[in-house]
Amino acid sequence: MTKILVADSMDKEALDAMRAIPGFDVTVKTGLNETDLVGTVPGYQAIVVRSATKVTRPVIEAAKDLKLVVRAGIGLDNIDGAAAKEKGVAVANTPAATSISVAEHTFGLMLGAIRNHGKGVVSMKQHKWEKKNLEGTELYGKTLGIIGCGRIGIEVAKRAIAFGMKVLVYDVIPVKIDLAVKQVPLEELLAGADLITVHVPKQPKPILSDAEFGKMRNGVIIINVARGGVVDEKSLLAALNSGKVRAAALDVYDKEPPEDFTLIDHPNVTPVPHLGAAAVEGQKRAGLEVVRILKERLG
């Protein structure tokens, strides 16, 4: 019997499909911290997580029978890959499953930022009518800079083109893109974009910091649905305060949940709690992809 620990919530259809695999014994235990996991994982051959649960070195070392850790999502920053490699534990994820969910979310945040939706919602809930103070601008004809042109970046580019935007893209390794976009060096993107959205993995250091903000147009809009730390939060706050950045829409933060709300409380920031992949359809695709991976590797 192969024992599977599902440590984060998953789509019901995917869980049912997982339980239907002959020889699989599936246990769902969510909300476990590191100590809880260390005491729980012995005897399990696989752990399934999303973004909340951290599979740390102590967890991997405690899981003597562990063969596979699967992340139902894009990144792997909540799994200690080095510890897994040392112990011969395979690590997998589902990078394509939630690309559309995240891309649509990105566009929602872009629209909200450029049309002052966040301020409008707050104002209306305070029973105010501030229509004259909340005039925005269109996305049409604006230049969008996309940093990171992987699966999500490409999906964002498709939607930007449909909105009549000009699109500049930058990636460390240029790739062939069959879309009406222009691949440019980072400096050219920073100088030419009206809005900049980031779609890169967790980085050793921020990709947007003081130096990069200094090269941007005045009044630029920043969107980050990638990972906390990709955009330097102190630099972004300073750029918002100076007016260099007109508005920012943030889905991810240095620490989640945040402890310091200074940036989040800024009137020109639209913050949401890491909702990028939190769409029913995306989670179903991710869950079923997890099932496929488990069946293929352990079935």
How does this structure look, described?
It is a single chain. The chain has 299 residues and is α/β, with parallel strands linked by helices. The chain is 35% helix and 17% strand. It contains eleven helices and twelve strands. The longest helix has 19 residues, at 280-298. It starts with a strand and ends with a helix. The mean pLDDT is 96.
CA radius of gyration is 21 Å
Globally, the shape reads elongated
Approximate strand percentage: 15-25%
Q: In order across it, which strands form the biggest sheet?
A: 8-7-6-9-10-11-12
| Fraction in helix | 25-40%
Biggest sheet descriptor: 7 strands, parallel
Distance between the termini: 10 Å
User: What is the N-to-C order of secondary-structure elements (H for helix, E for strand)?
Assistant: EHEHEHEHEHHEHEEHEHEHEEH
- Spans of at least 5 consecutive residues whose pLDDT stays below 50 are none
Total count of helical runs of at least 4 residues: 11
- Class per helix and strand makeup: alpha/beta
How many E-type strands? 12
What's the overall average pLDDT, rounded? 96
Question: Would you spell out the secondary-structure blueprint of this structure?
Answer:
Blueprint: E1 2-6, H1 12-19, E2 24-28, H2 34-40, E3 46-49, H3 57-62, E4 68-71, H4 81-86, E5 90-93, H5 99-114, H6 117-125, E6 143-147, H7 151-162, E7 166-170, E8 182-183, H8 186-192, E9 195-198, H9 210-214, E10 220-224, H10 233-242, E11 245-250, E12 269-271, H11 280-298
Parallel strand pairs: 1-2, 1-3, 3-4, 4-5, 6-7, 6-9, 7-8, 9-10, 10-11, 11-12
Helix pairs in contact: 1-11, 5-7
